[in-house]
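Backbone geometry:
***
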Amino acid sequence: MWIRSQDGTILMDCDCFAVEDHSGKYEVITLSGKSGISISLGEYSTKEKALKVLDEIQGKIECPYPSKVTPAFGTNCYCLSEKGQFYEMPADKDVEV
């Protein structure tokens, strides 16, 4: 899934996401399998806001095999469920919980 970072400086094909606590600020990160590093996509003032953004990302992805937790080896069944091919990380002030 293509994600545009909150500050607009990164456009990256991401497939793994997590929320990390950094001294009271919560970052939605992608775990890059290619480089082995984590990259911050957006920073939020509360864990609830970061989790809401993660929920939005999950909602943008659909799988034609909903009964399967993991798709069969060699299949790429995930795609964006709406028009457009990327998700733009919202600003902290734009996330309501």
In short: The first helix runs from residue 47 to 60. Residues 67-72 have pLDDT under 50 and may be disordered.
